[in-house]
Amino acid sequence: MALLIGTAGTPLSAKGRGSQGGIRRVKELGLGCMELEFVRGVRMKEPTAEKIADTARKAGISLSVHAPYYINLNSKEEEKVQASIKRIYDSAYIGNICGARSIVFHSAYYHEQNGNTVFSKVESLLEELAGKLEDEGINAILRPETTGKPSQFGNLEETLALSASIEGVMPCIDFAHLHARSKGEENSYAEFSAVLEKVEEYLGKEGLKNMHMHISGIEYTDKGEKNHLVLEESDLNYSELMQALKDFRVQGLVICESPNLEEDALLLQKTYENK
Asked: Is the C-alpha dihedral spanning 29, 30, 36, 39 positive or negative?
């Protein structure tokens, strides 16, 4: 599998806002993948998911899913924890019908608890959920995402440790989030290389051959991530990032989350190809 680059949702230039039209536009643009955005809830029905799978298969476009934002596996309210698990499960169930394998989500908040306590809770819940998906024949990889604020569970080490610990869990490395969380660090060739070395340390060479990544420009404050920006209007050193991905022979999907979606996805692809 090569390194495929695409958009977080339907490209802005697509005719209509539906996922099928989005897939066709991704193909026309010469990109390789698209992330289905279930961020407001999993409302897609099975017949629609089957049509999306057929469209993606014919176009040769790889799909992934971003689960709803309203997920917190460390909520103090048990009903919210159960609702979070259901949202991830529903995303995996429908995503699997769509032909998407990777299911991305933000795991939890610390709520002033220490990282080890939160890690144990999230690990237990994801282990159970991954087992359920396997038992039901749902071919999905759960991808907890590195988060952009220090108040959110999901720094690089926590995300990689979860992935190393649980069969059926792999990371989503969001390089913009790593940059914002560190208040402007994680932004040089050496630092990007160190991230990829850490992926290999926890997950072996296979970890680098099966990566899922988010890249965009990002605005941040002392509290971390504020909002996504167009790459050229941000300080993210995307050129050196693409160089690191090439040098480490990373394979998998790069999803561009910039506000201009396909423009920056194409910029990333061109930058990568010219390295």
From this structure: negative
pLDDT tens-digit map of 84-116: 999 999 999 999 999 999 999 999 999 999 999
* Coarse DSSP helix, strand, coil percentages of the chain, rounded to the nearest 5 percent: 45, 20, 35
| Residue from 59, 52, 49, 57 nearest 24 by CA | 59
Dihedral sign for Cα atoms in the order 7, 196, 2, 166: negative
| 75 close to 121: Cβ distance less than 8 angstroms | no
Cα–Cα dist 110/75, whole Å: 9
pTM of the model: 0.97
Backbone angles phi, psi at 186, to 5 degrees: 50, 55
* Pick from 168, 66, 80, 85: nearest CA to 127: 168
DSSP 13: T
Of 51, 54, 18, give the one whose Cα is nearest residue 36: 18
User: What does residue 196 show for φ and ψ, rounded to 5 degrees?
Assistant: -65, -35
- What is the rounded CA–CA span in Å between residue 240 and residue 247? 10
DSSP at 145: B
User: Is the Cα dihedral 104, 74, 146, 206 positive or negative?
Assistant: negative
Phi-psi region of 144 (alpha: psi -120 to 50; beta: other; left: phi over 0): beta
